[in-house]
Design a protein that fits this description.
Layout lengths: L1 H55 L3 H14 L4 H13 L3 H14 L4 H13 L3 H14 L4 H12 L4 H14 L6 H11 L3 H15 L3 H13 L3 H14 L4 H13 L3 H14 L4 H13 L3 H17 L1 H11 L1
Helix pairs in contact: 1-2, 1-3, 2-3, 3-4, 4-5, 5-6, 6-7, 7-8, 8-9, 9-10, 10-11, 11-12, 12-13, 13-14, 13-15, 14-15, 15-16, 15-17, 16-17
């Protein structure tokens, strides 16, 4: 029995020596393999960094070239496809941007950032329902992202879900009270529901926080006009035309406000500027006819009304909305 134990122990020692010798012989190969793995990982990490640096520096053509090269080399890497999708998006190529981002999503289905960037593509394509779905998915993973709530609110607002939009804008402002244009979007949502007093308050807050953004100044003036505060509306609409003198709608609403306060001379000038910038819009012609009638320029007024009728006939949807608003 003792002999058997001794022989067994001897066999174990012999086996151990054989394994040790085999490992020693294989050690150079193992070291080379590990070095190769480290080298591969470092190369992929370097690719991530190069591509990201190109995007951050806004070197879009370089990012596209690098991205295509790296994706061909590492086709199963979600981050590289994500970055390439962003490069396509920044270059205005929405279809390949979506293709790359969707492939990145299939490789990393829980990545909230990919959903967020897919939503940017959808918003640019004016596919607001899809954008809302993508942002909802992104917010499940990152509920504290205020910008995602703002964008989701915009998607809701553009798909006629104003009440839900208001909830999203409020949430964004709770998370970040100074988020850019947060109060502006909330004001716009209130205005879409006819809640003009709340809209005006939000626009005023946005102006205090962000300064004179032309869109905010215009919307404040327009909402004041719709609320019947014509004199104050003129102040903001006049400023809007100074900030964005090529915006025909600013001049149109300024002309309306001036006409409502009895200043037909100023209204005529503003409305003619609006027409010069956008001659196909029926609405300024209608208001111009009213201003000219008050000034006793009856022939010109008839001509303006005739032009309004012609444009209304050729653009029934636009003219119909304008007529309801103007009359």
């Amino acid at each position: 029995m003792f002999c058997d134990i001794g022989r067994a122990a001897s066999r174990d020692r012999s086996c151990t020596r054989q394994i040790t010798f085999a490992l020693l012989r294989a050690l150079p190969v193992i070291v080379l393999c590990l070095a190769g793995i480290r080298s591969y990982g470092q190369a992929l990490s370097d690719a991530h960094q190069q591509l990201l640096q190109s995007l951050e520096a806004n070197r879009i053509q370089e990012a596209l070239t690098l991205g295509r090269k790296f994706v061909e080399q590492w086709p199963q890497d979600a981050a590289l496809r994500h970055y390439l999708g962003l490069a396509y998006f920044k270059s205005g190529q929405l279809k390949p941007a979506r293709e790359q981002l969707e492939q990145a999503k299939s490789l990393a289905p829980k990545d909230a950032g990919i959903d967020f960037d897919l939503a940017l593509v959808s918003l640019s394509q004016q596919d607001y329902v899809r954008a809302a779905n993508e942002l909802e998915s992104s917010l499940k993973a990152q509920p504290s992202n205020p910008l995602a709530h703002v964008l989701l609110g915009r998607a809701y607002l553009n798909s006629n879900r104003s009440v839900q939009a208001i909830d999203e804008f409020r949430t964004a402002l709770q998370l970040d009270p100074s988020i850019r244009l947060g109060h502006y979007h909330l004001g716009f949502a209130y205005g879409s529901l006819g809640r003009n007093d709340e809209a005006i308050a939000e626009y005023r807050t946005e102006l205090r926080l962000s300064g004179e953004n032309p869109e905010v100044v215009y919307e404040l003036g327009h909402t004041l006009l719709e609320s019947g505060n014509h004199a104050e509306a003129i102040r903001y609409l006049q400023r809007a035309t100074e900030l964005d003198p090529q915006n025909a709608n600013d001049w149109y609403n300024l002309g309306k406000a001036q006409l409502l306060t009895g200043d037909a001379v100023a209204a005529e000038a503003s409305l003619r500027k609006s027409i010069a910038l956008n001659p196909a819009d029926p609405s300024p012609h209608y208001q111009l006819a009213r201003a000219l009638e008050r000034l006793g320029k009856m022939d010109e007024a008839r001509s303006a009304r005739q032009r309004f009728a012609e444009l209304k006939k050729s653009q029934p949807a636009t003219a119909g909305m304008a007529t309801a608003r103007d009359q």
